[in-house]
Design goal:
Helix content is 27%, strand content 18%. The chain has 13 helices and 21 strands. Strands 5, 9, 10, 11, 12, 13, 14, 16, 17, 18 and 19 form an eleven-stranded mixed sheet that branches. α6 packs parallel to α7 and α7 packs parallel to α8. It is globular and about 70 Å long. It starts with a helix and ends with a helix.
Length: 557
């Protein structure tokens, strides 16, 4: 991330730049303090600016929040070039973190293609995002607290003045604790979705929580949407784990489908098949809640589909012990989900003779990849490592999925920095931030999903991944859509593994693993057919991963 270069760049400017670790607190032992500082990170990715209003009547606040780091190699487009832009757009900005390259920046290629998501927030909710920044600054740069901009002086602290027409709502949530964040009690007492304060009082009611002074809960009287902002306590310090709460809330509300993009996917260790692994502190509820939602839909005989997009493998050399350890936890998570869903399907089919349903009708995992034909681009320079020489021949590379997003029923979009793992969702490990968006006039019903901006946003993403738009994408819980997505992914997988290198304009691939069931057995996760010795293409890394017991599981979950 080039911290020292950034420090030097800003040294003689008026920019106040502070570079801080995550740190332990007074209740931590020396070992716990060091683990927090070395093992975890500030992972939030957001920028807030004051900008001219579109109508020219003054200034407004704008925030940009999502998964993109402000560092090298992140710029990309939907063609995901490997070699052809090394002399132009990606000259000096080529990066590769998935293979061993002899030098940086990447010269001979290929560069690592990148898939990410960011969002722009305007309106009253930006005040809460500014507050998130201010609280971290007050905690870890207290000597510079006087340098913070006072929004009141800019007349940008009023929800009424920042109010925007259009009906969209936003709510910001975080994963962070009191060791690295100063929780302002006066703000916390009134923290709620600011839309509530501007709506008719008859539409909202305050629910005073018992046995807590830390929050108030606002509920819509219609019961359609509820907001909760509650701080927990752990070892005597306040913890905000509202990202986890938000995701669980919307998974439980889902009626038709869920679409997720994440860099990692692990959790609900209490479900894992290996009993000795169930004590691992990776107990976020996201995988379990998705599984329970699917099983309940199967029992009710209702259509419901979950699409999850992950990188082919987590960034790092695929065969390295750390990456293999992460893959082991992911396999444990995903296999446990498939097993429970398969058991629910077996029970359903026993009750309904003649009904043919498969696990893939309800849950599918995908990855991304691309290739470039030699005739359309040339590599530059001489490969300086074994990996570079291999990739110069195969001319293929995974497209790295770095986005952190969940779309539910085309009604709600959650976009931020948090992955689906314990590090991001715990509240006491990495610091994270996320904003949830929805429109009060476009909510899903039991019969249909809304066709509005979030619907169009998802269609744009899917068309970009698939390389074309198809009308079946409009109904993601229909079997026709599921079969089309899987057929696109399988066709691309065959192109990706073929001897001949061709230009790929469609980048959706199946996951490198598949769930296989033999007669009379509960099934297991196996490397996808076509992979040599169960390894990722062009690597020695096992698709299923392997436990590295030297490394504390807290760091890789």
């Amino acid at each position: 991330s080039h911290d020292e270069k950034s420090r030097a760049f800003f040294a003689s400017t008026k920019v106040n730049s502070v570079f801080v670790h995550t740190v332990g607190g007074s209740s931590n032992t020396f070992s716990e303090h060091q683990n927090k500082m070395i093992g975890f990170t500030h992972h939030q990715k957001f920028v807030v600016v004051d900008a001219p209003k579109e109508d020219g009547t003054g200034l407004e606040l704008k925030a940009f929040i999502g998964g993109i780091d402000l560092t090298e190699g992140r710029w990309d487009n939907n063609t995901h070039p490997l070699f052809r832009t090394l002399r132009c757009e990606h000259k000096t900005d080529a990066y590769n973190g998935c293979f061993l390259f002899g030098r940086r920046p990447v010269i001979a290629g290929p560069r690592e293609p990148w898939h990410d998501i960011h969002s722009c927030v305007t309106g009253p909710e930006v005040i809460n995002i500014v507050q998130a920044f201010s609280e971290r600054w007050m905690s870890q740069a207290p000597k510079l607290s006087g340098e913070l901009i006072n929004l009141r002086n800019l007349k940008l602290d009023s929800p009424e003045l920042l109010w925007k027409e259009g009906g969209y709502c936003a709510q910001t949530s975080r994963s962070i604790d009191g060791r690295v964040n100063y929780f302002d009690r006066s703000v916390r007492q009134n923290e709620t979705n600011l839309r509530a304060s501007l709506m008719a009082s008859s539409a909202w009611q305050i629910k005073n929580e018992q046995n807590t002074e830390l929050s108030r809960r606002f509920e819509s009287t219609s019961g359609d949407i509820k907001f909760t902002r509650v701080l927990d306590y752990k070892k005597g310090r306040p913890v905000d784990s509202s990202i986890h709460t938000t995701m669980i809330h919307h998974i439980r509300r889902a009626k038709h489908f869920i679409y997720i993009e994440s860099q990692y996917f692990m959790g609900s260790s209490f479900m894992w098949s290996n009993s000795s692994d169930r004590k691992v502190k990776c107990n976020n509820l996201v995988p379990a809640e998705i599984t329970l939602k699917i099983c309940s839909k199967i029992a009710a005989g209702e259509k419901f589909t979950v699409y999850i997009l992950l990188p082919m493998w987590p960034e790092g050399v695929a065969g390295s012990k750390q990456v293999q350890d992460i893959l082991y936890w992911q396999r444990s998570t995903i296999e446990s989900m498939f097993k429970k869903i398969h058991a629910a399907l077996v029970h359903r089919m026993q009750q309904c003779n003649g009904e043919s349903i498969e696990v893939s009708d309800y849950l599918n995992f995908y990855s991304l990849g691309t290739r470039e034909a030699p005739s359309t681009s040339i590599r530059l320079g001489i490969p300086s490592s074994k990996d570079e020489r291999i990739l110069a021949i195969t001319r293929r590379h995974p497209v790295y999925v770095h986005s952190k997003m969940m779309i539910v029923d085309d009604e709600v979009a959650c976009i931020g920095s948090a992955n689906i793992n314990q590090r991001s969702l715990d509240g006491c490990r990495d610091s994270e931030i996320m904003t949830t968006y929805w429109h009060e006039d476009y909510l899903a019903t039991d019969e249909s999903i809304p066709h509005h901006d979030i619907h169009g946003y998802r269609l744009h993403i899917w068309a970009s991944l698939a390389g074309f738009m198809d009308n079946s994408f409009r109904n993601p819980n229909d079997r026709e859509c599921v079969k089309l997505m899987n057929s696109i992914a399988q066709r691309n997988w065959e192109i990706y593994l073929a001897e001949e290198s061709v230009d790929m304009t469609s980048h959706l691939l199946p996951s490198p693993f598949e769930f296989m069931v033999e007669a009379g057995k509960e099934g297991e996760l196996r490397p996808r057919r076509g992979l040599y010795k169960g390894r990722f293409p062009d690597t020695h890394g096992s698709v299923l991963g392997a436990r590295w017991k030297i490394l504390p599981e807290m760091l890789t979950t």
